[in-house]
C-alpha cells in the first residue's frame, strides 16, 4: 500500500484540533463547577465534539497507515512486502510444475491426490 | 471557687491545707446509722517534687548539634572530594572497577554525606533546605563520584548520543535520514542542538560529564514529591529519595533521551497522585457508598467493585485555574516525551491508565491525548521505522530469548565482572522485595494495592522487541514506586522497634558502598580520558569524508563528531565487536575499514570482559602492520593503547596536524 505523505498534514491538523477541543472542554468543565448538577448544554456539546474529533483522528490514522500497521501486527507480516515475519528469510520460490518425463527425486513425497470436489 | 476560699468556718484538718484535696469525708458520730460508703477517694499526698535529672552532654548540646552537625558533615564531604580526585588511581582500574581504586577520602566523603543526611533526619524538627542540600551532597558523593574523580564523561553511548546532537546541529536542526532508528525520536537531540547553538558552543563535553548527578538530583526531587503525596510525613519522603538513589544502579542517567524521559514521567505521576488526586467518595468524603444497615448481609465482592467503579471520583480541592494549569503541564509533558524516547510514553500511559481505571485522578482525558499522540507520532512521523522494523514494536514473542540476551549473556567476564553483575541482580531483587513488603504495609494502612500495580505495569515491556535493555527499563520504570513503598516499610520498622534506626543507618552505608561498586564496576572500560577525545577529533580532522572509521569495540568515545561523514562498518556476520573475537584478524579483514581506532578502554574491555590476553590490541596492531594492510598512523606518547591504524595507502587530509606517523 502506498501512502500519500501530503495527506499527513490533515492528520496533524486533526490532532491539533482534538487538543484544542479537549482544552476548551476542560476549561468549560472546570470553570462551571458543581458536580451534583447535570452537565450544562455547552459541556454536552463539547463532549460530543470531542468524541467526534477522536473519531476523525482515528479515521485519518486508519487511512494513513493504521490499517497497514494493524494487519501487520495481527498477521505478523512485513508491512511493505506482506511476507510473514516468522517465516524463512528468503522468500519461497513459486512452485514449478515438474517435468512429466523427469524421474522423481529419491525420497521425495508422493504427489497429493487431486481434490474430489475442487471449489 | 477561688483558690483562697474564706467562707468555710467548719473544722479544719490537715487536708485543708493541701491544695490537691478537693473533697473530705465528714466525721461519723457513734450510734448513728452509717451512711453507705461514698465514692470519694482518699487523699493521696503528692510525692515531693524531684529535681529534673541533669541533662547529659549530648542533651545539653542537642540544639547546637542539631543546628550545625549536618551542615558541618556536608561541608566535610565536599572538602573530601578534591582529595578523592588526587588519591584515585584510574590507571589501576581492573575488572572490579572503581571501588578498588578509590582513595580513602572518597569513602570518607560518602560517609560524611550519609552522616549529614541522617543527623538532619534525626533532628526534632528536620529542616527541609538542609535535607535538600544534604541529599544533593549525597548524590554528588555516590552517583556523581565518577563525574568527580574521572576527567571526562564515561560511557561510549553518551558520546554517541552527543554525536547525534552534533549531527542535528550541523544540519541546522534536521535529523539525518536512514542512519539510525533513534533519529526517528529526535526531540532530545534537537533540544540539545538548540541549547548548543544558543550557547555558542561546539561541543558538550562538560555537560556530558556532569549530566548524571544533575539528572539524578531532578529524579530525587520527583521521588520526594511523589512520596510526599503517597506517604505524607516529614521524614519518609526523604528516605524514599535516598532509597531510590541507593538502589538506582541501572545507570540510565547518562546523557540520553531516557534520562529526560524519566524526569517527565515523574512529573506526570506527581501531578496525577498529587494535585489531581481524587478518591471515590460520597459527598461526605467517606470512601465508597454509605455502609449498609447494621446486621445486613455484606454485598458480594463483584457488586462492591461495580459500585466502586460507578461512583464518580470527587474533585480535587484546587481552584479551577490551577487545575487547568496542571492539566496543561501534564499534557505538555506527555506530548514532549512522545518524540523523545520510544519506551517512556508507554510507561507513562500504562501507569496513568491504571490510575484512571481505579479513579485516582481527575483528567482522564490525558490518557486519551497520550494514546492518540503516540499513534499519530509512530504512524506518521516514525513511518520509516515501523514499515521497516515492525518487530521492534511487536517483538518476536520469545521472552525467554530476550531474558537470555538481557541477563544470562551479560554474565561474562573475569571475577570482578561476574561479582558485579550478580550484585546487580541481587540489588534488583532487593528492590522488588522491598516494594512487595512495602505494598503489604501500605495495604494494611490504607487498604490500597494500586501502587504495587503501578510498579508492575512496566513488566509488560518484557513482551516487546526492545532487546536485552528492556529488562533494565522494567526495573528503572518500576523503581520510583518500589522505593516509595520500601520507604513505607522502613518507616513501619522504625516505629515498631526503635533499635532499627542504627541498623538501618548501617544498612544505608552498606547500600551506598554496593551502589558505588555496581555503578563503577565497568569503569575499567568505560572511563574516558581527554587524550581519547583529542585522538578521535584528530581522526575526524584528518580523514576524508566517505572513509569508514571504526573502533575495535564499542567502549570509549566514538562518533561524537562527524557522524554523517564516515562509514561505521558493521554488517559483517559474527564480527559485531572485533575485541570480542578470539581471533580478531579475520574480522578486521572482513570489515575492511579505512581507519581503526583503539583506546585504553577497549584494551581493558577485551581483557576483563572478553577475557583476551593483556596487550591483545597492541598485538593485533603489530600483526596488521606486519601484514602490510595497515600502518600505525598515530600512537599517543603517554598511552600506547591509544592508537590509530590507517589502511595502507588510504588518503589523509594534509591540512590538519598529524600525530606520529607510523
UniProtKB/TrEMBL annotation, chain A:
Domain of life where this protein originates: Bacteria
Keywords: Membrane, Transmembrane, Transmembrane helix
Location of the region described as Disordered in the Swiss-Prot/TrEMBL record: 96-119
Listed transmembrane segments: 12-29, 41-63
Name by which UniProt lists this protein: Uncharacterized protein
Species in which this protein is naturally found: Pseudonocardia ailaonensis
Record lineage: Bacteria, Bacillati, Actinomycetota, Actinomycetes, Pseudonocardiales
UniProtKB/TrEMBL annotation, chain B:
Keyword vocabulary terms for this entry: Membrane, Transmembrane, Transmembrane helix
Segments passing through the bilayer: 68-86, 98-118, 210-227, 256-277, 366-386, 422-442, 449-466, 472-492, 499-518
Entry annotated with the keyword Iron: no
Annotated region described as Disordered, given as residue ranges: 1-31
Keyword Transferase carried by entry: no
Superkingdom as given in the UniProt entry: Bacteria
Protein name (Swiss-Prot/TrEMBL): Glycosyltransferase RgtA/B/C/D-like domain-containing protein
Native source organism of the sequence: Pseudonocardia ailaonensis
Amino acid at each position: 500500500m502506498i501512502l500519500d505523505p501530503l495527506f499527513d498534514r490533515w492528520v496533524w491538523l486533526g490532532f491539533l484540533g482534538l487538543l484544542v477541543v479537549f482544552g476548551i472542554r476542560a476549561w468549560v468543565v472546570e470553570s462551571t463547577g458543581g458536580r451534583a448538577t447535570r452537565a450544562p448544554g455547552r459541556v454536552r456539546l463539547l463532549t460530543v465534539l470531542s468524541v467526534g474529533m477522536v473519531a476523525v483522528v482515528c479515521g485519518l490514522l486508519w487511512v494513513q497507515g493504521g490499517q497497514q500497521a494493524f494487519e501487520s501486527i495481527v498477521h505478523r507480516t512485513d508491512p511493505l512486502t506482506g511476507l510473514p515475519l516468522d517465516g524463512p528469510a528468503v522468500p519461497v520460490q513459486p512452485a514449478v510444475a515438474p517435468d512429466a518425463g523427469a524421474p522423481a527425486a529419491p525420497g521425495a513425497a508422493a504427489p497429493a491426490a487431486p481434490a474430489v470436489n475442487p471449489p | 471557687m477561688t483558690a483562697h476560699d474564706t467562707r468555710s468556718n467548719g473544722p479544719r484538718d490537715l487536708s485543708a491545707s493541701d491544695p490537691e484535696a478537693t473533697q473530705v469525708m465528714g466525721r461519723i458520730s457513734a450510734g448513728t446509722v452509717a451512711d453507705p460508703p461514698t465514692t470519694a477517694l482518699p487523699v493521696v499526698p503528692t510525692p515531693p517534687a524531684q529535681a529534673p535529672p541533669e541533662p547529659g552532654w549530648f542533651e545539653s548540646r542537642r540544639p547546637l548539634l542539631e543546628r550545625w552537625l549536618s551542615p558541618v558533615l556536608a561541608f566535610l564531604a565536599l572538602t573530601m572530594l578534591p582529595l578523592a580526585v588526587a588519591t584515585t588511581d584510574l590507571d589501576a582500574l581492573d575488572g572490579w572497577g572503581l571501588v578498588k581504586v578509590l582513595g580513602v577520602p572518597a569513602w570518607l566523603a560518602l560517609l560524611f554525606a550519609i552522616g549529614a543526611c541522617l543527623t538532619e533526619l534525626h533532628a526534632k524538627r528536620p529542616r527541609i533546605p538542609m535535607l535538600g542540600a544534604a541529599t544533593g551532597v549525597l548524590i554528588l558523593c555516590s552517583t556523581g563520584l565518577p563525574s568527580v574523580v574521572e576527567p571526562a564523561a564515561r560511557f561510549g553511548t553518551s558520546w554517541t548520543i552527543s554525536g547525534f546532537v552534533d549531527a542535528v546541529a550541523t544540519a541546522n536542526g534536521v535529523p539525518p535520514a536512514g542512519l539510525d532508528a533513534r533519529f526517528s525520536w529526535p526531540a532530545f537531540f534537537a533540544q540539545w542542538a538548540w541549547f548548543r547553538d544558543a550557547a555558542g558552543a561546539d561541543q558538550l563535553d562538560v555537560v556530558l560529564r556532569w549530566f548524571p548527578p544533575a539528572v539524578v538530583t531532578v529524579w530525587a526531587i520527583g521521588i520526594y514529591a511523589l512520596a510526599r503525596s503517597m506517604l505524607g510525613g516529614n521524614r519518609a519522603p526523604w528516605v524514599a529519595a535516598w532509597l531510590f538513589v541507593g538502589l538506582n544502579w541501572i545507570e540510565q542517567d547518562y546523557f540520553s533521551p531516557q534520562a529526560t524521559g524519566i524526569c517527565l514521567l515523574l512529573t506526570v505521576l506527581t501531578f496525577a497522585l498529587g494535585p489531581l488526586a481524587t478518591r471515590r467518595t460520597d459527598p461526605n468524603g467517606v470512601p465508597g457508598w454509605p455502609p449498609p444497615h447494621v446486621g445486613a448481609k455484606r454485598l458480594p465482592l463483584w457488586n462492591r467493585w461495580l459500585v466502586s467503579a460507578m461512583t464518580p471520583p470527587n474533585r480535587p480541592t484546587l481552584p479551577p485555574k490551577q487545575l487547568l494549569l496542571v492539566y496543561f503541564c501534564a499534557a505538555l509533558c506527555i506530548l514532549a516525551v512522545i518524540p523523545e524516547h520510544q519506551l517512556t510514553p508507554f510507561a507513562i500511559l500504562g501507569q496513568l491508565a491504571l490510575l484512571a481505571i481505579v479513579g485516582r485522578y481527575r483528567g482522564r482525558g490525558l490518557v486519551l491525548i497520550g494514546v492518540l499522540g503516540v499513534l499519530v507520532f509512530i504512524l506518521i512521523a516514525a513511518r520509516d521505522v515501523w514499515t521497516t522494523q515492525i518487530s521492534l514494536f511487536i517483538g518476536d514473542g520469545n521472552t525467554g530469548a530476550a531474558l537470555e540476551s538481557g541477563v544470562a549473556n551479560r554474565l561474562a567476564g573475569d571475577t570482578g565482572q561476574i561479582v558485579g553483575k550478580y550484585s546487580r541482580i541481587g540489588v534488583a531483587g532487593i528492590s522488588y522485595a522491598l516494594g512487595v513488603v512495602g505494598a503489604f504495609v501500605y495495604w494494611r494502612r490504607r487498604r490500597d494495592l494500586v501502587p504495587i500495580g503501578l510498579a508492575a505495569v512496566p513488566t509488560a515491556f518484557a513482551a516487546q522487541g526492545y532487546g536485552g535493555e528492556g529488562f533494565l527499563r522494567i526495573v528503572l520504570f518500576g523503581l520510583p514506586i518500589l522505593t516509595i513503598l520500601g520507604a513505607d516499610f522502613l518507616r513501619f520498622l522504625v516505629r515498631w522497634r526503635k533499635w532499627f534506626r542504627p541498623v538501618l543507618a548501617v544498612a544505608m552505608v552498606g547500600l551506598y558502598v554496593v551502589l558505588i561498586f555496581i555503578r563503577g564496576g565497568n569503569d575499567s572500560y568505560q572511563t574516558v580520558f581527554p587524550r581519547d577525545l583529542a585522538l578521535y577529533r584528530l581522526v575526524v580532522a584528518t580523514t576524508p569524508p566517505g572513509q569508514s572509521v571504526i573502533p575495535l569495540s564499542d567502549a570509549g568515545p566514538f562518533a561524537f563528531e562527524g557522524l554523517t561523514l564516515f562509514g561505521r562498518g558493521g554488517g559483517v556476520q559474527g564480527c559485531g565487536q572485533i575485541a570480542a573475537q578470539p581471533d580478531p584478524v579475520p574480522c578486521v579483514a572482513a570489515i575492511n575499514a579505512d581507519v581503526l581506532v583503539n583506546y585504553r578502554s577497549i584494551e581493558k574491555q577485551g581483557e576483563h570482559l572478553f577475557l583476551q590476553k593483556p596487550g591483545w590490541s597492541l598485538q593485533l596492531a603489530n600483526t596488521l602492520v606486519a601484514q602490510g594492510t595497515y600502518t600505525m598512523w598515530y600512537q599517543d606518547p603517554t598511552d600506547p593503547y591509544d592508537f590509530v591504524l590507517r589502511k595502507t595507502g588510504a588518503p589523509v587530509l594534509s591540512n590538519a596536524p598529524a600525530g606520529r606517523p607510523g
